[in-house]
Amino acid sequence: MTPRSAPAQSPFDHRMAVFATDDEFLAAAVPFLAEGLSAPGEPPPVAIAAPARLDLLRDALGGDAKEVGLVPHTEWYTGSAANAIAQGAGYLAANAGPGGRIHLLMEPLWGGRAGRSPRETAEWIRYEALANLLFAPLATTVLCAYDTRVAGTAIVAAARRAHPDTGVYEDPVRLAAELDAVPLPPAPADAERLPGPVPPAEAVRDWAAARGLPVADAELFATAVTEAADAVGPLDGALLWSQPPACVAELRAAHRVDDPLAGFIPPPSAELEPGQGLWFARQVCAYVDVRDEGEGASVRLQYG
User: Phi first, then psi: what are they for 47, rounded to 5°?
Assistant: First the structure.
């Protein structure tokens, strides 16, 4: 994909704290939140963390705790990495001060969805890396908190490369390209090929429903496929296959995408609705992989 780096003097302040004990967590979190409380022109800071750590913060902050937003991370990280980007962008638009000013303490949910498989882990490291591009124009200050007791050393080492304050920071596009270099499994031999430059939504919906997706889910999957096809078309072909409990579509585009943020930039409307292209697809699907290959590209969508 075309290089697209965060500005050298980006106002977005993306920090990382690594801890192995509750005391180490508090040593990083309390000064950070105090910094937010004293920052002129900012709304109150917010801590998004495990419930047990929010209890620690309440005790440590004392009377200041009522001035800090405390959000269980199970309520913030409720879906895919793309969902988390949407959540963050929506929150900043609704609650941040001028220029996006606010302090956010964020503890990713590595003990749940984000850390349950290498595939899922790679998607969340991509989220951390691309945040440096997506939020570069904003004066938001974020401290990502990583508990080595939960995340483990390999995840922490990868996450360091996505945070500018670590000394091992990698260009976000380079890091995303490295994650994309891991090949996806090939489509199975019995994958069904769909005709036409854009897969008919009805055909995708009926195919998915016949393979066990509830009607509403089959409709969402079909809309995601057609939205992605519209965004990257014209197509050279489309494949569908079942990967229980998921349904998968692969679109072969005739040209490259050349944009690491394709589908990650929020549309003007905060509502999820058709016409939002890859953004809609990323919000609906568990995974959307965009891979430039030669003069073309493949887009693989997994629902479920």
Answer: -110, 120
Query: The tokens 């309520």 sit on which residue?
Result: 75
Token readout for 212 is: 């066990």
E runs forming strands in the chain: 13-19, 46-49, 69-72, 102-106, 140-147, 192-194, 235-243, 246-253, 287-293, 296-303
More confident call, 149 vs 196? 149
CA 153 to CA 146: how far, in whole Å? Answer: 10
In the chain, pLDDT over 90 holds for what percent of residues? 78
For residue 132, the Cα-to-chain-centroid distance in whole angstroms is 12
- Residue 61's nearest CA partner among 45, 73, 72 is 45
CA distance 280 to 274: 7
The number of angstroms, rounded, from the C-alpha of 60 to the middle of its chain's C-alpha atoms is 31
Tens of pLDDT along 1-20? 444 555 556 899 999 999 99
Helix, strand, or coil (residue 291): strand
Percent of the chain residues topping a pLDDT of 70: 94
DSSP annotation of 254 reads S
Torsions phi, psi for 242 (to 5 deg): -95, 135
